[in-house]
Amino acid sequence: MNLKTKYAVGKLPHGEYPRPQMRREDWVCLNGTWDLCKRKPDGSVTDWQKILVPFSPETVNSGVAEGFVLEVGEELIYQRSFEADASLLRGVTLLHFGAVDSECKVFLNGKSVSSHVGGFTAFVCDVSDVIRPGQNELRVECRDEATRNSGARGKQSDQRGGIWYTPQSGIWQTVWLESMPRAYIRDLKIVPDAQEKRVEIFAQSDGEEIELTLFDGEREILSTSFVGHVTLSHDFELWSPEHPKLYDFTLKTRSGDLVRSYFGVRSFGKTTDKNGRARLTLNGKPYFFNGVLDQGYWSDGMLTYPSDEAAIEELERLKAMGFNTLRKHIKIEPMRWYYHCDRLGLVVWQDFVNGGGEYSFAHVAALPFLGFHHKDHDYKYFAREDARGREEFWTSVDETLSQLGNCVSIGVWVPFNEGWGQFDSASVTEHIRKTDPTRIIDSVSGWHDQGVGKTELRSLHTYYTKLKVPKDTRPVVLSEFGGYSMKIDGHVFDEEKEFGYKKFRDANALLGAVRTLYLKKLKPLIAKGLCGCIYTQVSDVEEEINGLWTYDREIVKLPIEEMKKINDEIAAEAEKVE
């Protein structure tokens, strides 16, 4: 069954500007009511029905009949008309899609304008020569075979259950238009340097000079012009979860393109403490990353959270509990989600979304528990024999790095998790390191570690065995642990099935166990070299009921103030590290 959350979906869901670090005034949100049908493998189509975009048809919030399933070989066809005011259309008009799962073709006014493969990354269509003042017809045709082939699917599975969830398809993030002059600002890249207290800005505008104005709150603190690249030097306040300082700036071309953006000045790195133990750092000082695993699944929207308000409330609740980090697990969120992490002060460890063939439990889970780590150039062992699937992953790596590269909050990239779709991790890690040397890489989170020198972290997943810090020259993180579950009748996806790593029947027992886990078992490990921990998980997801709160977000299982006390003790212990 699907549970509804308490958040109401408005007439225009997710109507906020979708890209906070590159905001323009001339834009139109195309979310809302669309027409939808299925095309069968024989070419016949079903009756048209209404769907609320950007919610996938499998979700409650979409308005599509419960029980919707996209069968093998079927396609989705979306259609809608929209009015384009002549005053909107300037030299260049771009049509943006936040995410479409998993393959799609886009047509405007009967003409093909783009196609895309990959269900989690954004893409854009240049419709300048096709769009017209007045009425326009938009059509999107989607296929979603990612759960049946080697494409990126994340946690989605046709055989859902346990840690695998109901698959969804089609448009699941915002669709929108924007228009700008022919010489417009693009390829914006922001590189902060906390040590030197400077920021490099890269932007292209067809050779036109760009005027930059920097603000501290409402106060203008710097103005300059550049072509291609500029370095900003100032006595910048540094960003951290405890002090999430952001600076706004504008970019403007002579042709009239105006972009509003922001940055934070911070650095993520590694060091050695006075006892010779490897440590992770924030702004050059040892920092303990105390976080929660965040799957980003919602009972009424699956991968699509119901509203901006819902996302903000969840992040604020985690901050109130005293956490400073989230591991975004096998999913890429809308850009506004990262903006809220930036401004609220939450570090993000960002997973890449993987695919591959059918995973062998013995290969990717059972044997690593016994200490066996396999070399990941063995494609057959890791169900990565399909060259097309591997190539799709490489493409998604570059798309992910480009899309999320400016996010202040992202401190760690996580290309592979527990052997799922893992292959050539040393090469992938090196590529990410060369593309973005400013962040840490947890290249094989959990197991199938490829050895010192090929990975940047010793990354452990510990649910059933004793917590410990093994000897290693790399920083050691507990990138998954806990997973304590408690069922709350009336607030579960399935009353008969439940999954968790250790089960409790009442809130007092759960709180006591979590307190013991953190203060008796984890806290002493900080002095021994533990650099971070990620508790499983933010919320229940379907029959996996080990969340801090229920799947419908109605009940918080652990009192916020009690979790804050626990995390305050962890923070106090971490401050002793020198």
Descriptive terms for the model:
578 residues, alpha/beta, Jelly Rolls, Immunoglobulin-like, eight-stranded parallel β-sheet, 31% strand
Descriptive notes:
The chain is built from seven helices and 34 strands. The protein has 578 residues and is of the alpha/beta class. Among the domains are: 27-180, Jelly Rolls (Sandwich), CATH 2.60.120.260; 186-263, Immunoglobulin-like. Strand 20 (268-272) and strand 21 form a beta hairpin. Helix 1 (308-320) packs parallel to helix 2 and helix 6 (507-527) runs parallel beside helix 7 (560-574). The radius of gyration is 24 Å and the shape is globular.
In one word, what is the shape?
A: globular
Query: What is the CA-CA span between the terminal residues?
Result: 51 Å
By helix and strand content, what is the structural category? alpha/beta
Oligomer: single chain
Give the class-level CATH name of the domain at 27-180.
Answer: Mainly Beta
Q: Helix amount, in percent?
A: 10-25%
CATH architecture annotation name of the domain at 27-180: Sandwich
Average residue-wise pLDDT: 94
Low-pLDDT ranges: none
Radius of gyration: 24 Å
The overall strand count is 34
CATH topological fold name of the domain at 27-180: Jelly Rolls
CATH fourth-tier homologous superfamily of the domain at 27-180:
Galactose-binding domain-like
Range of strand content: 25-35%
Question: Tally the helices: what do you get?
Answer: 7
Main β-sheet, in a few words?
8 strands, parallel
Largest beta sheet: what is the strand line-up? 28-26-25-24-23-34-31-30
